[in-house]
Amino acid sequence: MSLTLEQALKKSPWQGKPRPADALQWLTRAGEVAAILAIDQVKRDRRQAVPAAEVQLLKNAGLTTLLGPVQHGGAGQHWDTAYKVIRIVASGDGSVGQLLGYHYLWAWAVRLVGTPEQIDAVEALYTANDLFFGGAVNPRDGDLTITEVDGQLVYNGRKSFSTGSKVSDLTVLEGVLQGTDKHIFAIVPSKQDGIVYHDDWDHLGQRLTGSGGVSIQDVRVDWASAAGYVDKIYQSRTYETLNLPAIQLVFTNFYLGIAEGALKTAAGYTREKTRAWPYGGDNKDSAGDEWYILEAYGTLQSRLWAAEELANSAGAEISALLHAERDALTPEARGRVAVRIAAAKQAAVDVGLEIGTRVFEVTGARATANTVGLDIFWRNIRTHSLHDPIAYKRREVGAYALRGQIPEPTWYT
Fold first, then answer.
1. How confident is the model at residue 141 (pLDDT cuts 50, 70, 90)?
2. What SUPFAM superfamilies does the record point to (predicted)?
3. Partner of 274 for a Cys bridge, out of 6, 218, 252, 287, CB 3.0 to 4.6 A?
4. What pTM value is reported for the model?
5. Contacts by 143-151 with C-beta closer than 8 Å and gap 24+?
6. Angle CA(249)–CA(243)–CA(146) in degrees, nearest 5?
7. What is the mean pLDDT of the chain?
8. Per-residue pLDDT reduced to its tens digit, 31-55
């Protein structure tokens, strides 16, 4: 498939074709999306337009309802497949992989904290109407303030980051009820006067995620929409704490996807354009015969495969927990999977940054041209891997390895 994004939107390559029937077919569909995105990834990154077209492509491909219930028109797939889909899409465009991963997490948020009635309502709404999620839940900012007015909850405040919200249909809000310590999540329509996007995302990488700031002004919801609250009392369970390891593995997989894209792009350049070095005393006819180039690709590919297998294993473990009965989860099981995901994340960051740098060594000086765009991969991983300090993930794994200590749930663990 060699369509550009613009061409794919004019005439969907999946129009009239049956929907994928199993996990393997969905991974193939994700690969088709990645191939479209990869063609003009660099041009779109440079342009930094609002990623509305990219989100529409995800919808047209059916990927946005991958986790949605079958009875409402979704694919009914599990998280272990979703994580691989995120990785594959990110191999074509890291920003779009992040958008899709965040969408999956926010679409699942109602299962993490909601009542059974809220779960049914939200999943029916987003799946049947193919709605895309964003979120304004950056915990490093001050919480949004919630006041109760005439029996409704009124959200006000500002968030520095709100990935995907401007191109979303639904936004997850989180704030603290004034005069209490009650955190309240709610899902609201994204397109309303009370949500103002600042269009101020101008960072080194992940430039097409629309992750700029957002102001929330008098956004009202009924108590019935306060996720997990019954008669204004929150129904807490250990299951809700899976939110953090689940999204950390989202990060891990789009890092790995970006690294895959870097290695694939570099290999194509090496095969087609890199010249052998004629002054080494062991001269080769082509760059593909150079021992140092073969050694580098062998090292990078091996490390990437190892990191991917760790991510796959962790994905299978947390998927089993996410799809089990919510009340069955124990703190110990949650802690063990969080450690495994912390290990997978640090492996992904390490190999991703290494690949993002070393691809220049195996492509040559001419590959530094802006038209080639090899810089995009390092920039993307370097930017998002600063989301929370990777040193703390190393410490969590160390504490488990040395003392058998599992991490306590936090906003980042």
1. confident
2. Acyl-CoA dehydrogenase C-terminal domain-like, Acyl-CoA dehydrogenase NM domain-like
3. 287
4. 0.97
5. 143/174, 143/175, 143/176, 143/183, 144/173, 144/174, 144/175, 144/176, 144/216, 145/175, 145/176, 145/178, 146/175, 146/176, 146/177, 146/178, 146/184, 147/177, 147/178, 148/177, 148/178, 149/220, 151/222, 151/223
6. 135
7. 96
8. 999 999 999 999 999 999 999 999 9
